[in-house]
Amino acid sequence: MTDRSLKPWGRHALLTVLLFLGACTPEPSKTRVDLLLTNGVIIPGAPGAPGGNVMAVKEGRIVAVGGPELADCFIATVTRDLEGQTVLPGFDDVHSHIHSYARRYIPLQKITSIEALKGAVQAKAEALGPGEWITGYGWSEDALTEGRKPHRDDLDEAAPDNPVLLTRAGGHSAVANSAALDLGEITLATPQPEGGVIERGEDGRLNGIIRERQDLLAQYIPPPTQEELKESLTASLEALLPLGITAVTHASERLERWPLWREIYQERGARLPRARVQMHWEGTEAMARFKASAHEGLDTDRLSLGAIKIFADGGFTGPAAFTKAPYKDMDDYRGYLNLPEEELRALVDEVHRAGWQMGIHAIGDAAIEITADALAKAIEATPRNNHRHYLNHFSMRPSDETMAQMAAHGIAIAQQPNFTYTLAGRYSTYLDGWRLAHNNPVKSPIDAGIFVALSSDILPIGPMVGLYAAVTRKGMDGVVYGADEAIPLEEALHRYSYGGAWLAFREEDRGQLVPGQLADFIMLKRDPRSLDPDALLTLPVEETWIQGERLWQRSP
Ligand SMILES: [Zn+2]
Fold this sequence. Notes:
This protein is an alpha/beta fold and about 550 residues long. The strands form four sheets. The protein has an eight-stranded parallel sheet with strand order 7-14-15-16-17-18-19-20. It has a six-stranded mixed sheet with strand order 8-9-10-11-13-12. A five-stranded mixed sheet has the order 2-6-21-22-23, with no helix packed on it. The chain is globular, with a radius of gyration of 26 Å. The protein binds zinc ion.
């Protein structure tokens, strides 16, 4: 298969440009539109399509893009002088994870001191009132300026009247306060639990740290209500708008959580980014029953089922990515498949035969080669025209044979170039030489004829770090990893919008600023093509528009 992104821009486009090539006829035969953007830099995100300075929008769709003379062709309800701002297609983040939490939960990953942690716990206690549980995840003594673990006394100071349990990054230990220990009836007399440790401090008292057996306390925490999960999921979706994300694929979801998504989108889907949801597989019949009514009452332009999610292996944070050669300095350790190879092959074949699209997590080169081959064999056994199966991550470059096999079978990739930046430390710990230099390859699979879409996952969510890394191939450590895998910015932008639309089978409607497409676009103060790549890392989005409606604007 050739790279579909190189297909010429839409058929609507040619028509419209022909219509407006000549001088416009005088009023009253000017065309009426809802929105006319003038005096901007329009980047259409479509190879070969002319950009321009003016864009006209009617009923949520783009009707024309062109030079300044185009402005005279329309009467607009709203005309907006962009004063030189840049307009580009909204980002379609085709692999991310949209979190939803209980109200009691505090994300701790970005907290850098025990003082700040205490402040967050205190604020939460005030918000919830006495007696309510407070939970959190993600602290690490390595990231705290005090250089020590938070203790029971710290939490008692912050929230004496609420039970508190904060889990360390990685999930192998947690710290509790006195109220939580009391609830769990854990005292100095409690025997050490099987498989875990209740720590004592230097003063002989319990310091609140419990290793491996946080369940001793977690069992008392009530589950979150539907209402609070809904509130939190909605807030997480709204938080994508300031990042310029107009469409997102939530990469992993259980069937029983689908009603939550439905409810949110039925109530306020027009105010949120478009979403697709990758579901876990529960067997051909159960999935067919589920699919039959999943979209009932939904605007599928706003929310729809995505590809089936399968995990072939783990990642480099475990580390559990399944590699062909042993990890660097780890004897013969190669990670492992998430399920036996024969089971993986049978599952891929079953899902393919049932007619679903698959987006399979595969990170290590061995996992990638097995998964690509499993998909290819399933496609050969049951040919399907337009499956658009893809591999998520593709963090290690596989053999040229595998890339040729993927191209020949139309197997695509959802790549996260930002991993090269954020996970540089992990890769250089576990990989070396050629395989380190080609982590998260972008250019080589494109050259092999594979369709590559770009996305961000959650490291962090948002396209700017990925755009920076796609162009520079720089890690957080400043090292350039495999400059031959870099691509130009304009192409990276295209793959961050059109790429996701294509994997969602919606490329006729979204992903490019050409006539006929939905008006999903963002504004930036400056043309990113004219910036030093370093500036991309902190480049703010000014406005985010979906279907001709402004859903978010940066406060000045
Ligand atoms: Zn992910």
